[in-house]
Specification:
alpha/beta; single chain; nine-stranded mixed beta sheet; six-stranded mixed beta sheet
Amino acid sequence: MSKECTVVFWDVQHGHSAYIKTPNDRHIVIDLGTGDYSGSNKEFSPLKHLKNNYGVKQLDYVIVTHSHLDHIDDILNLDLLDPKVFRRPKHITNKEVMDGVQEKDKPKFKKYCEINDRYNSPVGADSTDSASNPDNWGGLNIQSFTPSSCNHNNFNNHSIVTVIEYAGINVVIPGDNEKCSFEELLLRESFKKAIKNSDILLAPHHGRESGYNTDFMDLVNPRLTVVSDGRFCETNANARYSAKSRGWSVYKKSTGISKDRKCLTTNSDGEVLVSFGFSSDPNHKNFLSVKVE
C-alpha cells in the first residue's frame, strides 16, 4: 500500500480554499473560499463538502492566510468541523479586520474575530498538533512563514505562506502576498531554502500581476503552477507563470487523457487534485500525480 499526501485545490471562483490529507489521515484546510463547484453550485462550501462527502468529522489544523472575504467566506461553517488549531496573522487586530467592512459581510468578519479571540492558547512544541514535528503528520513536513513589516493597510502583504513537503515533493501555498512582503520574506534564508525548486505552486494573489515576483519565481522554479480564480481576472499573469514553470503530466478525468501542462486554473480546469508520496512497489519510489476535472 502506498503512503501519500493529498492536496485538493477547490474551484471556489475568485477565492482560495485547499484541503490537505496527510499520510496518517489527518486533515488540514488552508483558507475558506466558497463558490462554483464544477459549474453547478455557486453556494459550494468546501467545509460542508468535507463533512458530508469526505466523512471528515474534525479538522486538525486550519490556516487562514489573511482576513479578506474571498479567503474567509466559508467561516460560518467552520465550527461544524471543530478545528483543533486555527492559525492566522495574529498581529492584525480585530479592529483592523473590521475597519471598512460592508454591512452585508459583517457576520462573517465578526465570526472571524470571535474565532480569533477564542483560539488564543499557543500550541506547545510537544503537542501532537504542533506543525513543527513531521511525526505528528505522518512524515509530512509543514513550514509556515508570516511577513509582518509591511503597512497594515494591505492585508495581502501579511499572508501566511505554507510550504509542505513529503517524499521529496514540495507544495508552496503563498496567499495573496505582493511586492512588499516578498521583499521581506526573501531576506530570510529559511524561506528561500524552503521554497527552492518546488513541484507545485499556488500562484500568489490568484495569478494577478500584483502578486508576480520574479525573484520568488526564480527560486520556486515549479513544475506546475495552479491559479485559483474566477472566470474574469484583470491583469492575470498566467502566461508568465507558464513561462516559468517546468511542466508536468496532468490527467483529465473527463477525457481519460494525460497531457503535459505548465499552468492550471480552477476557472477552466475545475478542482485540482494533487497526490504525492511513496509508491507501493518494492523500491518505494516517490511519485507525483495531478488530476483535473
